[in-house]
């Protein structure tokens, strides 16, 4: 494979030597270094990595985001990289098309002398250029977290099949899932749902797009929060909230809204975690750098296995807890790093320049026993509406 010195590579790629040196410094694009003379040599495959960096930068990703998305991933798959870029560019084109339509609508009402402020607010909501990037990162993080569980769980039933098996849907005509994510709960169950009207909601348009792509048109998709359900009272036979309630800004309001939307004796199913869930991940991150905090506020404190029953009993009866027995045995340091980087704390800032060192640290832990044992504490509350 042909190699290029820094100046030649910069000329061919039409970037500055200063840019390449900066990417090298932050570990984003590191050439091979000749140990004898110190010269840096780039390869043809480095053009693939550089192209993805520049394309994602143009789409709106920060260098920090790009670094954490591609670092340590080995050789870039060209087709996969280009298809991803194409998808993101199409989303960006849709964003600008919607923005242009909103601007034209406001201009028309303004010319008539009666500016429609509701249209202007719509324009304001469309003028957030980080939406495509944010939606991709959220969706990517969800996939990463689910993949770790799918790949290393000892319980081979799987979380979503187990969850679905505990739902009483036989006589449920109207069903609502609050916070549906990418629709994983329903992926393999569509054949059993012909006589049900199922509404999937999420606060993220990106997640709803993923659910549509995964499930098709057999479901109704709506963007709203569990704290404000736009349906009449006593409408649903079943409401489901899978790992969602602890994200609510006003949990008592969300519980009240769900109860209102449910029929009397309608079923509510909600899942959550316990205090020990994935504790080894937190402990490993803190052992490597005591400043790392993976979650600013533990989710289980807001709504967890230990306090969920008491929070539900104000609106629901016959509250029962089903525990999902499982743990992880992780054998690949890179998969664990991806999971840690997908969390909501300060780990990106602390690890961005130490990924290689952190990978070595985790691999040594794996080599001690052949795998890293990770505790899982999760379950589902089943209850009836009062």
Please specify the SSE layout and strand pairing.
Blueprint lengths: L2 E3 H8 L3 H9 L6 E2 L6 E4 H16 L3 H8 L7 H34 L5 H10 L4 H22 L6 H7 L8 E5 L18 E6 L2 H11 L4 E4 L12 E7 L8 H11 E12 L5 H10 L10 H4 L5 H5 L3 E9 L2 E4 L2 H9 L5 H5 L3 H15 L2 E4 L2 E8 L1
Parallel strand pairs: 4-5, 4-7, 5-6, 7-8
Antiparallel strand pairs: 1-3, 2-3, 8-12, 9-12, 10-11
Quick synopsis:
By secondary structure, this protein is an alpha/beta fold.
Written description of the protein model:
This is DNA-binding transcriptional MerR regulator/trans-aconitate methyltransferase. It comes from Breznakia pachnodae. One of its GO terms (molecular function) is methyltransferase activity. It contains 16 helices and twelve strands. The protein has 386 residues and is an alpha/beta fold. It folds into three domains: 3-70, Multidrug-efflux Transporter Regulator, Chain: A, Domain 2, CATH 1.10.1660; 78-129; 149-385, Rossmann fold. The longest helix is centred in the N-terminal third of the chain and has 34 residues, at 78-111. The protein is globular, with a radius of gyration of 24 Å. The model has no long low-confidence stretch (mean pLDDT 87).
Number of strands: 12
CATH topology name of the largest domain: Rossmann fold
State the oligomer: single chain
Strand coverage percent = 15-25%
Poorly predicted tracts of residues? none
Question: Would you identify the CATH architecture of the largest domain?
Answer: 3-Layer(aba) Sandwich
CATH superfamily of the largest domain: Vaccinia Virus protein VP39
Q: Which descriptor suits the 3D outline?
A: globular
Please tell me the overall pLDDT: 87
Organism: Breznakia pachnodae
Domain HTH merR-type: 3-72
InterPro entries: DNA-bd_dom_put_sf (IPR009061), MerR-type_HTH_dom (IPR000551), MerR_fam (IPR047057), Methyltransf_11 (IPR013216), SAM-dependent_MTases_sf (IPR029063)
GO molecular function: DNA binding; methyltransferase activity
